[in-house]
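Notes from hallway chat w/ T.B., transcribed later so I don't forget. T.B. wanted the structure written out for a chain they're using in a teaching module, and asked if we could keep both sequence and structure tokens in one place. Agreed to drop them here.
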Amino acid sequence: KVNLTNVTFTNLKCGVSDKRFGEFEKCYIKAVNRTHKYIDVYFRLHQPPIENVTINLATMRYNNGYKPFFVNITFDGCKFLKNQRNPILKYFFDLYKDRSNLNHSCPINHDIFLDHFWTGNIEEGFLKYIPVINGDFSVDTVIYSNNILRGFLNVYLRITG
């Protein structure tokens, strides 16, 4: 079976609510060629360890503004990293786990990075199993630690096929 779906990153937004907790030193998209791009993210953690983290993950589709589409889930990040039982979260995690140092359970005592995460990871991993209509999408994450808003990371992409 040939996968004709093409994914391209269109934007990346990273932000923090408290620079005393940590800050994004890298948050950018680089072109590999005309059709594929990769993402590099580096978050410098100023107040380790992270012993609990809550994440809201939402997929959005652009239709006169970004609107909820398919997934909107809030979960305990430490519990997920420990057992990885949620199949939807596992799909997302499997896309980037080999490109990141976020591959163990809490506590997190180090900076966090996502290195050269390219669009081919999405095409070959996620979209091979789940058909998605063409359009502009975002994957929005909001991160809390100790019930305090710490930051967000939003990935914007276009799916064509």
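Follow-up for T.B.: The first strand starts at residue 6 and ends at 16. Might be a good example for the class.
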